[in-house]
Amino acid sequence: MEFNHADLFEGLADTIGERTAVVCGGERRTFAELDAEANRLAHHLQDLGVEPRQHVGLHLYNGVEYIAGLLAALKIRAVPINVNYRYVEAELAYLYRDSDIRALVYDVEFEPRVAAVTDRAPMLGHLIAVGGPPSIGSAVPYATALERGKTERGFPPRSGQDVYIIYTGGTTGLPKGAMWHVEDLFMGFGGGNPYGLPRATPQEVIDEAVKATPMVMMAAPPLMHGAAQMATFLAWWMGSTMVYVRKFDAAEVWRAVERERVATLNITGDAMARPLAEELARGSYDVSSLYAVGSTGAILSGAVRDRLQELLPNVMILDNFGSTESGYTASGVAGSSPEKGLRYQPNSVVKLAVLDERLRPVEPGSGQIGTLARSGRVAFGYYNDPEKTARTFVTDEQGTRWLLTGDLATVEPDGTVSIFGRGSQCINTGGEKVFPEEVEAVLKGHPAVFDAVVTGVPDERWGSRVAAVVEPRPGAGVTAAELDAHCRTRLSGYKVPRTYAFVAEMVRSPAGKADYRWARETVESSSGGVSI
């Protein structure tokens, strides 16, 4: 057995097979049942001709089928490819083609888009349909695929160097596939033990899971995001159960917490925390089993975090810092927030640094701003993108290979890291630097604001001026003057937006991230924009 996710899962199925591994709505599988289902699907993929290192797309909502498909690919040393189900046809065509998928497991709800773009993905030759009979003639129903496969394993030996790819979408540009070796992925996302040092051997992971008192954990984000996939594996390495909802709905999340007696809940920033807080305030749910809510993939603003904490006074609210390429790297320092300044305590088992332009660490307490970087167990590149790989994964004068995260930061005297935001989105106004995330958090702290995105637009005098696109809360009215007054009590004058555009609905990327290009175009073209 190696530090390979398929090896480790099979070890769990053989030792704690009777425990429940996954729950989604009315569907649940024990470790043994999920193992058998994944074996059947894996053998079907093999029979289709899918070989090691070839790619299998997963274009699905959350469900047992998603996680079975993920395991099936890993069992035959193929590479699972997460497909963002929010993508429109042009984006899907790009992803199918860029990822070189050979087979696709898809939800029939997405069939019109799948049918429209499969001919633009020349390597895609096999379709497996989930959720009902397919209308695409060549597609095989998921149930039929399982019937054709064997329950037994009989797979060739695997390696810690097998590849795992997670496609991630940024704030601009096309999605990119972060490539990991599975042993590095295991270590990079908790090492099988999120509360201490990594496990020394694969067998130790199994042994500790057997001894552990099973918990019920829940990932609210979609499995198409790496955060939910990694949360699932971490739950399993702890011998615990992972719960999902098919599609994010705040009421359904709280119903699942109540029904399954969930102990820990994983969410993604304000986009989930805000509706969860609002639903909890107006509903009646038994959440007494819950003791921790952790946000990964996006930062909680102070106002939303405080509201959630008010509603869950006995629950730990945790902010974790990391990325698809870096894994889990740091935890939020108590009291930090985008409004007050983001400070993180680096994970003790990773090498995290802030590097200057010459790739040298900045001196703690110097106030010098550099780029946050991590070395060691990180992704090794981007699929089909050698130029992006070369810019992001660099080697210093001592021969240490670093992942440059793109975040601008400095190191405090106590070793904590203060993060300001993405350098690519930093607004230079009259020589002063403004980070959009800080201003967005302040705006979203106004009771009449539902969402906000801040960007820079050209200005004859200052070079750029700060501008904001604001989505008011339903039924709430807010003016530029009110927001200006709100910001001026919380931000330096040069950070306060000078122009506002109000929209009925915010446009975000299919990955849920701020679309700064759209925001800039909206401000520049808005006839209803207001300048202060």
UniProtKB/TrEMBL annotation:
GO MF, one term, reads: acid-thiol ligase activity
AMP-dependent synthetase/ligase domain location, by residue?
17-383
Coiled coil spans = none
Q: Which InterPro entries does this one have?
A: AMP-bd_C (IPR025110), AMP-bd_C_sf (IPR045851), AMP-binding_CS (IPR020845), AMP-dep_synth/lig_dom (IPR000873), ANL_N_sf (IPR042099), ATP-dep_AMP-bd_enzyme (IPR050237)
* A Pfam family: AMP-binding
Q: What are the AMP-binding enzyme C-terminal domain coordinates in residue numbering?
A: 438-513
Q: PANTHER family, from UniProt? A: LONG-CHAIN-FATTY-ACID--COA LIGASE, NONRIBOSOMAL PEPTIDE SYNTHASE PES1 (EUROFUNG)-RELATED
Listed name of the protein = Acyl-CoA synthetase
- Which organism is this protein's natural source? Nonomuraea terrae
